[in-house]
Amino acid sequence: MNPSFTTLFERSRYSSRAKPGILDPEGQEQRERFAVGMVAFALDHDDWFRRRFLKAICGLDGEPAVEKWTILVEPENWGDLVLKNEALSEFIVVEFKVDSDLQLHQNPEHKEFWSEAASGATNGYGWEIPQHAQGFKTLRYITVEKALSWRKAARSPARLMCIPRTWRDMAGEAPDKDSHLEAQVYDCMGRFGVASLGSRRLSNMKKTNDVMDAITILAGVLESHGGRFQAQFIDAQADYFGVKLNRKQFPKLAQLVPTTEETVGWIGYENEPRRLQFWFYFDRGNPSFATAAESVKRLLLDAGFTQDRISFAMEGKHFFVYALPDDDYAGDGEWLEKVFSALNC
């Protein structure tokens, strides 16, 4: 058995309670605690990872990366990870979430975050952090989640910057440039169910025939755009395998696709011929379907998709626009990301 963060966790007494997708509160908590400790260890021992983290997650570049930082894991109940640098007068608090959601007192969009709580309750982090960061000029509170649950803080005090991030923001675009320790962090987070990190090693794979690799790639793309892979969205037959795109998880896509149904699109693989596809579902009974379909096609063309790789199809009450990769695309995950980006979804 190779030594790694994943091995350390799987050999711990908590691993049986912390399987991805199992709604066990203790398991979720232990997975998040291990994730925080793992990131802290990598920050302390890997200069490359520290530079990446400070820039991508904290918004600090250049000189701060080479400075000596004090790194604390859960020093109080108002943050998972605390980074302090007295020379730079920087005080950074990072809250990590794997499966659980931010609570009101952890979410800058809510008034509870900024308030002192009643006796016996938990104070808001926006109230607590300034109390413990006296003497520091710049305070940063950062949340790291699978998908963003908030975007704009309810208040913007000068001393406390609030920044929403995803796990995917932590990693660079080229897995082959990851340091050894950094790659271990991403691999372990993938095992914890953070699909956007677990799928990075497959980013250049094309037309995979392995079902588990296909699931990993599709789940990673969904998570990168605010969705979550769920078994009920799998759509598979002998000649295709894919995932339905739900309007609730992809509201921007739903705005482009006029249909009253819950499914607004589909991504996956066709078997004969073997190829990757992205489908958009339109209700033929909707008077605007033809205009909307042309708009989607135009967005794809403007993003660089060629005319011969965008097609129309009809089946029952549905009218489809679907896109195919050309013969020289980088990889399945990157191509799907390109489609989502073309539609601003």
Poorly predicted regions:
none
Strand arrangement, major sheet: 6-7-8-9-11-10
Order of helices and strands: HHHEEEHEEHHHHEEHEEHEEH
Describe the global form.
globular
Number of domains: 2
What would you report as the Rg, rounded to the nearest angstrom? Answer: 22 Å
Instruction: Compute the separation of the termini in Å.
Output: 41 Å
Helical content class: 25-40%
Q: How many beta-strand elements?
A: 11
Structural class computed from helices and strand pairing:
alpha+beta
Largest sheet: 6 strands, antiparallel
Number of helices: 11
Mean pLDDT: 85
Strand fraction: 15-25%
Give a written overview of the molecule.
- With 345 residues, the chain is α+β, with helices and mostly antiparallel strands.
- It folds into two domains: 166 residues, no CATH class; 144 residues, 2-Layer Sandwich (Yope Regulator, Chain: A).
- The protein is built from eleven helices and eleven strands.
- The strands form two sheets. A six-stranded antiparallel β-sheet has the order 6-7-8-9-11-10. Strands 1-2-3-4-5 form a five-stranded mixed β-sheet, sandwiched between helices.
- Helix 2 crosses helix 3, helix 2 packs antiparallel against helix 6 and helix 8 packs parallel to helix 11.
